Amino acid sequence: GEMSKRKADGAVLIDGKSIAAEVRLEAKERAEQAHAQWGVRPGVAVVIVGDRKDSQTYVRNKQKACEECAIASTKKEMPADSTQEQVLEVVRALNADKSVHAILVQLPMPKHISENEVLGAISPEKDVDGFHPLNVGMLAMRGREAYAEPCTPKGVMELLKRTGQDPSGKKAVVVGRSNVVGTPMALMLIRADATVQVVHSKTPLSDMEASIRDADIVVAAVGVPGLVKGEWIKEGATVIDVGINPIPDPSKKAGYRLVGDVDFESASLRAGRITPVPGGVGPMTIAMLMHNTIDLMLHAVKGKPKAPERFLHLKSDQ
After folding, report:
1. Local structure of residue 306 (DSSP, 8 states)
2. Which residue of 76, 138, 158, 210 lies most exposed, with the fewest beta carbons within 10 A?
3. Residue 304: what pLDDT?
């Protein structure tokens, strides 16, 4: 059934949490099928440098999802004062490790380490986040496919697909142009035949407003709480809010609450569909990471002999 609930005041909530659960379940089935067929478990290695609390949490969530999806995961924890060369050595070792199909470097890294150098050192065929310039380049070109596409924008495309929305011929505005979300998001929407406009921190607010007023699909990914105003939203438009911004809230146990880049209350009065924050795009990011890992594993084993007979009893009925 459609994974969304109608809100009394208009917009349908896109329930990213339950859609992501469905997507993870499908990943588990794929992983078990792949294991049965090839005798190999899909495997991801996560490299984390330093001890940022938020990064530790993200990595823990990623590993938990792997376990749930029958994907092997290993964690390479490195101290904050590791040199760039030490991090590169770890990446090179993982590139050479046959049991690792997918490599993820948790960002951000400490200031003294060049993210470009480290991400560029990952083998493009193991680049599960799709951040290697070769993968970004292939994503940007017609008639080519990246080995893996960035998980967050891929999760957004999946939300659109599973709520029955085809971007073809639609006007889409992407707010933000980061390497992690905005830019690959725009590329994926172009691939899906949308008419795409990208607005960002150097766009005058009046221009940003004018663009968004025309948009059938708005994807906000800038990290500015409530930047996109509800009255800018076209009646019936789809609003996907990638922002997760902590704002002080004494009534909460943690002392803060999370809000998106869109002013949710006013936007939900006009939007046709809208993602909540949290519980919208966030869970989809990790769900897509599972599928990317399996994709890379299948790419790695293609052309190799199938698993020996002893694995065949594991075959699922599909």
Report:
1. P
2. 210
3. 76
CA torsion through residues 218, 222, 224, 227, sign: negative
CA neighbor of 156 nearest in space, from 283, 277, 271: 283
Q: What is the four-CA torsion angle of 165, 167, 170, 175, rounded to 10 degrees? A: 100
Sheet holding 102-105, edge to edge: 72-78, 43-49, 102-105
Spatial distance between the Cα atoms of 237 and 17, rounded to a whole number of angstroms: 21
Extract the tokens encoding 46: 């996560």
Element (H, E) at 288: helix 282-301
Is the distance from CB of 15 to CB of 284 less than 8 angstroms?
no
The answer to whether the CB of 214 falls within 8 A of the CB of 236 is no
Contact between 41 and 12 (Cβ < 8 Å): no
Residue 97 contacts residue 74 (beta carbons within 8 Å): no
Sheet containing 195-199: order of strands: 4-6, 12-14, 273-274, 238-241, 217-220, 171-175, 195-199
Looking up tokens 């994709």, which residue turns up? 295
CA distances from 21 to 63, 84, 219 (A): 15, 37, 22
Residue in 205, 200, 211 with CA at minimum distance from that of residue 173:
211
DSSP string, 72-120: EEEEEEE-TT--HHHHHHHHHHHHH-TT--EEEEPSSPPTTS-HHHHHH
CB-based contact 284:120 (threshold 8 Å)? no
What is the spatial distance between Cα 24 and Cα 14, in angstroms, rounded to a whole number?
Answer: 17
> Hey, is 307 helix, strand or coil?
coil
User: How far is residue 51 CA from its own chain's centroid?
Assistant: 22
Alpha carbon distance 264, 244 (integer Å): 12
Question: So which residues are the catalytic ones?
Answer: 62, 106, 129
Residue the block writes with tokens 């007979």: 309
User: Residue 284 corresponds to which tokens in the numbers above?
Assistant: 């989809």
